[in-house]
Design brief:
heterodimer; A: mainly alpha; 7 helices; about 0% strand; rod-shaped; B: alpha+beta; Fusion Protein Consisting Of Minor Coat Protein, Glycine Rich Linker, Tola, And A His Tag, Chain: A, Domain 2; 4-stranded antiparallel β-sheet; about 10% strand
């Protein structure tokens, strides 16, 4: 503790900045961990439920049970768009073929938009982890360089280069790099982990979209 | 557009709080660990004995005042050499006389011998006492006439007596090396002593230009630096000293 209290003001500021980076990145890691975990487990349960159900309206009434899954968002979007298409189809008396194709494309667009917004939601705050992982070692290094500079200044003043004079200043300085690495390592690990998890979820969303469109197209074509 | 309203991340505040608490806990753990197993050895209180102004002086308490009433009169750090030497010699000479006398007076009765012995011892003691008194009075005179060598510490500031300790060492050394060619040579030197008590820097800030005296001062500092001890504050000690042939005065300490 004395080593931190004995450091210069710049080194102290650097340490404070790194500490806040660490606190925020760990907050994000915890939040993301639970968010992704819930999204994954509820998506699996939703897919089970989806394949067991025969009707979209039955699914739509139950979908709130899986509110944390990105797939339910996709389903809601696709279903509401489908309802609009069907309603407008019932009102209009145009040719069936054009409405069918247009209806499927509308649903497809709605699904794509929902997928994008879900990706955005899942990737939210992850940039901070990437920033922490890549910059905090450099911030720590800056603190170290500054600390060593002041240590050498002190050595110049006392005129002695003995280890006893040099060592404490350098130890004080090196702690900045240590804290920088402590902040960076979990951030980088968590960032890679979440990137992978989110890629899996995106794949699930894509395959769900195609399944959904397939069902819609089959039903419309079957009418 | 019934796109999903970007939901407020309710969990994130909780996560940040938990994260902050974890960091605090880790910090406290590290601090507690450091206290449990301190890296450095506990600093022991150092006492150093100034042979000139006995008894023990504890610089930590800034206590430069002697407890003994006898030595109270002689706070001046004058070189020690004659004091213990003569004190040791006195009883020796006493025993010598006894030894030289006893073979001659072998015929004497035992009681008479004891009487003589007591007389002789009393004589020696009285002589010794007289000598000591003379010495003290001469010292008192000295300290009254010149201010040189009297510790300037008020005795209130911790470590102030350390500067006097250093000064005393320097004065002892200067007595051995002092040599000058001009009338009133004067050299101001700034000394830096490391926390371990080593002389790490010596800078001559001002000199009257007497190169012989300058050399003497350098040699005195070299000599004295062997006897330096670690400052009681365990920090780098820096002080200016003004060297004159008559003695050393404290310069400004930084």
């Amino acid at each position: 503790m004395a080593i931190i209290l004995g450091a210069g003001i710049i080194v102290k500021l650097v340490l404070l900045l790194l500490l806040s980076f660490s606190v925020v990145s760990w907050g994000i890691i915890l939040f993301k961990f639970f968010q992704v975990q819930r999204a994954k487990s509820e998506s699996e349960r939703f897919m089970d439920f989806f394949w067991k159900s025969k009707r979209f309206d039955a699914i739509a009434s139950q979908v709130d049970r899986f509110a944390n899954s990105p797939l339910t968002v996709l389903f809601n979007e696709g279903y509401s768009e489908l309802k609009k298409v069907v309603e407008s189809d019932g009102k209009s008396d145009g040719s069936a073929l054009s409405t069918d194709l247009g209806g499927v494309e509308n649903v497809s667009r709605a699904l794509r938009r929902a997928t994008n917004s879900e990706i955005t939601r899942l990737e939210k705050y992850l940039t901070f982890l990437a920033t922490t992982g890549s910059t905090s070692p450099f911030i720590g290094l800056f603190g170290t360089v500054w600390g060593i500079m002041t240590a050498f200044e002190g050595i110049g003043k006392t005129g002695s280069a003995s280890l006893a004079v040099v060592a404490p200043g350098i130890a004080e300085a090196l702690i900045a790099t240590a804290i920088g690495l402590v902040a960076a390592i979990p951030a980088v690990m968590a960032y890679n982990h979440f990137q992978h998890k989110i890629r899996v979820l995106i794949n699930e969303m894509d395959s769900f979209s195609t399944e959904f469109l397939n069902i819609v197209q089959r039903n419309i074509a079957g009418k | 557009m019934n796109s999903r309203v970007p939901q407020v991340d309710t969990g994130i505040g909780v996560s940040f709080t938990v994260s902050a608490v974890i960091h605090m806990a880790v910090f406290l753990l590290v601090a507690w660990w450091g206290q449990l197993f301190p890296l450095q050895m506990p600093i022991q209180e150092t006492y150093y004995v100034d042979v000139v102004s006995l008894p023990v002086v504890s610089p930590q308490q800034g206590d430069a005042v002697q407890k003994n009433s006898e030595s109270d009169a002689t706070p001046a750090p004058v070189p020690v050499l004659p004091v213990p030497a003569s004190a040791k010699n006195a009883p020796k000479s006493g025993t010598k006389t006894i030894k030289s006398v006893s073979p001659v007076e072998s015929v004497e009765t035992e009681s008479a011998f004891a009487e003589r012995l007591a007389k002789l011892e009393g004589k020696a003691e009285a002589q010794q006492y007289e000598e000591r008194l003379k010495r003290l009075s001469s010292k008192k005179k000295n300290t009254g006439s010149t201010k040189a060598g009297i510790p300037s510490a008020a005795g209130t500031e911790a470590g102030s007596s350390y500067a006097d300790f250093i000064k005393s060492r320097l004065e002892d050394a200067l007595k051995l090396t002092s040599y000058y060619t001009t009338q009133k040579p004067e050299v101001a030197v700034r000394l830096t002593i490391s926390a371990e008590g080593r002389l790490i820097r010596m800078k001559i800030e001002r000199s009257s230009g007497d190169s012989a005296f300058e050399l003497a001062v350098r040699r005195a500092i070299d000599l004295a630096s062997e006897k330096f001890i670690a400052p009681p504050t365990r920090t780098t000690f820096e002080n200016g000293f003004i060297f004159k042939p008559k003695g050393i005065t404290n310069g400004t300490s930084r």
